Amino acid sequence: EPLAWSEDHRVSVSTARSIAVLEQLSDVHSGGQDMVIHRTAVPAPAAACMLKVGPKKEVAECKEKFASSVDPTVSQTFMLDRVFNPEGKSLTPMRGFKYSSWSPLGCDANGRCLLAALTMDNRLTIHANLNRLQWVQLVDLTELYGERLFEASYKLCKADTPCGELGDFPEFQRRHSMQTPVRMEWSGICTTQQVKHNNECRDVGSVLLAVLFENGNIAVWQFQLPFLGKESITSCNTIESGISSPSVLSWWEYEHNNRKMSGLIVGSAYGPVKIIPVNLKAVKGYFTLRQPVVLWQEMDQLPVHSIKCIPLYHPYQKCSCSLVVAARGPYVFWCLLLISKAGLNVHNSHVTGLHSLPIVSMTADKQNGTVYTCSSDGKVRQLIPIFTDVALKFEHQLIKLSEVFGSVRTHGIAVSPCGAYLAVITTEGMANGLHPVNKNYQVQFVTLKTFEEAAAQLLESSVQNLFRQVDLTDLVRWKILKDKHIPQFLQEALDKKIESCGSTYFWRFKLFLLRILYQSMQKAPTEVTWRPSHEDAKILISDSPGMGSTEDDQEEGTSKQASKQSLGDTGKGVDIDDTAEDSLHQSSDTGGREPMVEKLLEIQAQIEAVEMHLTREHMKRVLGEVYLHTWITENTSIPTRGVCDFLMSDDGYDDRTARVLIGHILKKMNKQTFPEHCSLCKEILPFTDRKQAVCSNGHIWLRCFLTYQSCQSLVYRRCLLHDSIARHPTPEDPEWIKRLLQGPCTFCDSPVF
């Protein structure tokens, strides 16, 4: 499985040199119709991973002994096993990654996903993308687990029989197999209780990472959130699964009557599949199975390649259920699990006739339960589960990639979080009955939904967060840029939603549509804007003082300068407040452009109105936090009086909730104003603009969009789409201000870096 798609819309592609990470963005500052992707990489470690099976000197002596053994069953097994010899010597080096897995959203310091990566030489590490463009390794779990086993003398519990000597080849193999990772998978975020020094309990978020080893053991790591490194590891427990030759792993998480149950689904290379109970100590609301549940017990030599667990709602039984699907050879094994008064009901079967070759990759859309499988011949199958009175059946249809990309071979697939796109790794197929000389691996993106389906899903979304639905908004963005207008049905449906519930999500969705519409009206640049032009020097020379110039030269210089200005305005990431007027003046020079100018002015006015509404709503939230967490006449470092005056400055804004809240706050402040002061000249910084603060001496400071404090430092954060800026939290900030600073962008829901 070389592909994985995270909840925050990043695709990881495992290669021999690195993990390429492709991040999909729904860019509101670009007028291009193509999909916008930012690419970063997690490089493969330079040094080979040596598993810790004993003291270094003793291990070196044992390796030399096994390599020179007269028994060929020992020497050849040792020399050819790449777990024992990761550096390779005469063999090719085991460099690169064989598997990657994304955590749920909200696990790193920025509230995004962590990446667990498994290298070819069995090193398991966790990485985070903290400063936007660079990946940082937070912890090496292979090294930590090896140290734990070494301290425990390679026994799982004290009651185990004493282990043999390292010089015995079976013992040497056992110590390696008990710490050679096969697969790893993240659980959902769960809540644990932490006891403070004053005996108060507070809820702390945590996440589990299950690691399946070659000998069938499973290590369950528990991490406290946000995960910062080694210090965030809470515990590590090892479970014996009893599965021989394990091949794949997945979490089973089930909710029934507000009681959550969990377990681990393990598949074997020999065929069996079963659920292993996981005892989650100190985790609120979680229960576990009393004993393992066998889903498929036949040793039919069909290896389990991939397992997906999909939570669904059963329309006939009126309860939640779990659909487990596993790729076994060319077949798909499915199992429906639901809890009734009689206990745990298990229905299972196989779907046959899908592929003529073994399934090489499988992915699932967890929102509607659709499963996608592919074989190496370029054929992708879509399986849609349909419930019946007893269990379920699958409707399946063929997706021929050859009709889209020509003759290709497929190596992996992954579906986007909301099911809008399918990512496929392809290489050239056969041409005229001949295989290609060279293989060029490419990641292709195929749309699975129409614009109308994406728009309907965004309007009825339970998530109410644009950033978590980037794949859907990208389809909407493409449609508006292509047609240069917002479809009437979408405009009307959105206006009804805003009138009926008034959620800020729909206002942000409206802002997104207006910004894309504004971009579609912009004139596209005719040249590449980043390339330096030779005219710049001529303009500077003709305009410089003391240089004589003829009238023709001056006219030529002026026209060149105007053309350069036009390119700069249309080509850069457009700031709506600054560039609109310039582009309007340029477009109005040509006759017949007045309707377009009026249209752009109208869209710009609508954008400013929506932004102001969202700003006021967030200001009310900030003032609510100030009122709840302050005493009488306390300086909160938030410009409370300035925010209150800004909200009340517009006579047309009549919000009774805001007026009542401001009245209570002003009563608490007792005529105190607590103004901000410029750090350069100590003058008062008035609150006249939501974006910046300007003192009487002309010093300009940008305002934090989360707390409306002035960012009086050289270092601050920006949202993913460069919509707004925010300051960094400081140690003296109270907890409620730190909570405010953890929020996403108020305009586009993007995280802040």
Automatic annotation (TrEMBL):
Pfam families xrefs: DUF5921, TFIIIC_delta, zf-TFIIIC
GO molecular-function terms, A-Z: histone acetyltransferase activity
Ranges where the Transcription factor IIIC putative zinc-finger domain occurs: 670-720
InterPro entries named in the record: DUF5921 (IPR045803), GTF3C4 (IPR044230), TFIIIC_delta_N (IPR024761), TFIIIC_Znf (IPR024764), WD40_repeat_dom_sf (IPR036322)
GO terms for biological process, alphabetical: transcription initiation at RNA polymerase III promoter
Transcription factor IIIC 90kDa subunit N-terminal domain mapped to chain residues: 5-449
Identification of the protein by name: TF3C4 factor
